[in-house]
Amino acid sequence: MTPAEAALLLGVRSDADAAEIMHAFRRSARSSHPDLLVGASRAELTAAEERFVRVSAARDILLKKAAAPAGTASSGREPPETDLGPGQWFTSPSTGRRVFVAEPEPVPLPPSTWALTAWVALLGAAVALSYFGGPLPRNPLDLVLRMIPLATFAVVYAITGRRPFLVLGVVWAAATAVMTFALASFGSLLALEILLVPLLALGVIGNRKRRRREAVAGT
Asked: 102-160, pLDDT tens digit by residue?
């Protein structure tokens, strides 16, 4: 793999500095590191592994070039162990297995979008139920100050995995539980039970997203 090919693979200039190279590598690793593709099929993991080998080699080539003194001559090719062209076998740095490198293709993320969509839809139904039969039925102020922020924090945490939204969501959920038991009725208790299910599921999705972000940041 030549420096020009490595730059094209990472989407940077061939004379990019180390900071640009590492930023581009981490961006690529988010969609290609096999350890981050939770729930992916064997074919997706194999394709991700192949791409990760290539982007790792591209990073090493460009970092070596960036660290070389100005004016250093280059043959335009790296040693054979970093020449990751299609149709060759290499040892994967992540698993130690031999990997056949095919033409790189974009690797789709696991189909977690469907789970997120389903839980958000159920959350919307629970919010509607709470509005009509919750502790303060048909109260617009309760909807604006309690239910909409609670739903927003849960969904944003599931999408981003950022801890502050988890903390805010827990606070609002606790306030909801206290209010429900303080003004207990059959409708409000039923609404609380239904509401807690999608909130917990979105929290699980957010935790997975947070762990992936932390793993990529530590790559």
From this structure: 444 444 444 467 788 888 999 999 899 888 888 888 888 888 888 999 999 999 998 88
Place of tokens 């039969």: 133
pTM of this structure: 0.47
Contacts 24+ apart (CB under 8 A), 146-151: 146/172, 146/175, 146/176, 146/179, 147/176, 150/176, 150/199, 151/123, 151/124, 151/127
Residue in 72, 50, 51 with CA at minimum distance from that of residue 3:
72
Q: Report the C-alpha gap between 13 and 134 in whole angstroms.
A: 57
C-alpha torsion sign, points 71, 7, 33, 86: negative
Closest to 219 in 3D by CA, of 68, 84, 24 = 24
CA distance 96 to 99: 9
Report d(CA 63, CA 28) in Å as an integer. Answer: 16
Q: Where are the beta strands (DSSP E) in 86-150?
A: 88-91, 98-101
- Cα distances from 163 to residues 86, 116, 138, 156, 206, in angstroms, run 41, 18, 32, 10, 9
